[in-house]
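Q:
Got a chain?
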Amino acid sequence: MGYHRAGFEVVGVDIKPQLNYPFQFIQADALEFTERLLEPGKAWQGTAWYTPEVSFDAIHASPPCQSYTTMSNRWGSDYPELITETRELLDATGLPYVIKNVPGALPAMRNPVRLVGESFGLRVHRARLFETNWPILVPFPAPKQKDPVAVYGKNDQRRLWTRTDGSELRAATLEEGSEAMGIDWMDWDELREAIPPAFTEFIGTQLMAHLKATVAA
């Protein structure tokens, strides 16, 4: 949604179905899809490759984050680490790109910027790293939320922890999480895996300006 607000026509690609996705969606392996982009005149439609009339101007990639989380870094993970492979494919396309992942992926990323919800007036922290192969500005830092909305785990409003002042942090309801994230079209399982559209709108606005400047040059 953020890239849409920044002026892009968005096409989503994921190996799993995304029933609530609000834009054109292609169910496919994202790495395979990117490999096919390297073949001139090829793109994916349904279950077949075809020759398209349009091409992509930029790519946003979100490699699986499970192997880069704090717990995985501490105890190991059976999930593959795909940032390097993803970057190699994106470099080969020659297109401007964005790679998004969790803070634990910092050692695998190249000079990423770190975005948090507080910088956009949101009631979630949701720290995420974004690597680009084009110049990007970073928003001013903001104080960390003292009472953030917890949009993760099970949607059961359970107590997550008790603060030193005796107050409790509990898992958000779907309504609370949707409002805090700025997303009103997802169910809980989708929402807890998402990032706020404000993040990608911020990046997308700069990316659009970069593309226009490149064409003008």
